[in-house]
Amino acid sequence: MNRRLSSEFGQIKIHRRVISQAAVIAAKGVPGVKGVGIECYGLFGQILKLFRVTGIRIAPGTTKDKELKVCLPIVMTSGRNAVEIAYEVQRRVIAALLDTLNIDSLNVDVKIKKIVEGG
Prior knowledge:
The protein is an alpha+beta fold. The protein contains 3 helices and 6 strands, in the order E-E-H-E-H-E-E-H-E. The chain has a single domain (14-116), classed as Cation efflux protein, cytoplasmic domain (Alpha-Beta Plaits, 2-Layer Sandwich). The longest helix is centred in the C-terminal third of the chain and has 19 residues, at 82-100. It is globular, with a radius of gyration of 15 Å.
């Protein structure tokens, strides 16, 4: 899914990889998040990374053209509240993407794939 916008000068296209990168940057800024996307899958993830797989699913919404759905797997550190971390990831990703893109609606699903030791 590419975001296509128009201006008086022509077409503006935002590739899903850019949307994915913006989501990763926002999620990594949350304290307690150790990894995002393909980083959640260990050695298998490292192999997939060679093929430019991000592990983040970006899909158009179901009702409107200017709607977006993001599914974001994360690895968190132990000793933290999983629900609070997931909520903060959602909040920051939504804020970053709404600020970056001209969309009406955004749904961010956070999947905690693993808890690791350390801070």
